Amino acid sequence: CGNVGGQRLLSPVLDSLLKVGIDLTLRQEYESAMEVFRNAARRHPDHPAGPLYQMVVLQAIAMDYEEVIEDGVFDSLLSAARMKSQAMIERDPDSPLGYYFLGTALGHDSYARVQRGDWFGTITKGLSAVSQLEEAVERDSLFYDAFLGMGTYFYWKTRKIEFLTWLPFIRDDRARGIRFLQHCAESGEYNRYGAMSALVSIYLDAGENDKADSISSRCLAEYPHNRIFLWGKATALDRKGFVKEAINAYEALLAAITGDTRKNSYNELVCRLRLASLSLKDDRIEDAEKHLVGFTKLQKEEFPEHLKKRAVDKFRQAKELVETMSRLRNGQR
Predict the structure, then answer these.
(1) Facing residues of 8 across strands?
(2) Considering Cα of 318, then 323, then 324, then 326, what sign does the dihedral take?
(3) Cα within 13 Å of Cα(330), Cβ side
(4) Are 150 and 134 in contact (CB under 8 A)?
């Protein structure tokens, strides 16, 4: 996670295992990544990195497949990562590492609470995470990997309470958060792509679609089938009004979704809906029909509870598209 005085902070073996596991996670080869991180935990039983990066894989899976993280497994790994991080701080309070791993573990706990709808827990854990990460940076100002958790928290904390930023004691930290993430994306050793993923989400949220497109393209040059970055690129092009380019990007995304060994029905639903809508906009009625046929087949799927309402809304939108297409066909006649 950086160097201090020319000395690498992690052993060469652990450094190598983490980089292999991170690469596999970005390639979305999740089981292989988990096995690498389990191996890291076995070979370094007192180090928090093994359980921590297994948590990272679980969160990557949840994001990729629109799933809810399994509390039991996640909480067990979180407990192990926290305990080992605290022990590391006690052994060497002058090293940034223990604070970094503890802050990162708490940051992932905060993110998991977003999914559970626990906003109070999200804020309190997020504050605790930033406090620990700031301790790490205080001990090594060039510890760029710590900037991922800090930058993400600063932006989204402000974003969720921006209606209060007119108050004198509420600080707008969005620019600060973006600046931290940019530093991590450029100079982080393990979290570069995590920072770029966070920046894509933030730029889309802020309406800076050119920047989201640019970063997504940069990541796809290295990981061309990564569905998270494909979503980022397709969404940015769509929002910029680049219809043909957006269709191509969504086609690549759909191929990545349907070519996966694991079902991803909700995301296929969203992707096909956008393709049908854009195809109609581009006067490609037969292509729109093709995607709506594929969309109809997905009506037989049983969606998990947390996605049912969203799926119903997508099917309603598809029905409206079918009606629009029918009117266009009648008009052509």
Answers:
(1) 3
(2) positive
(3) 6
(4) yes
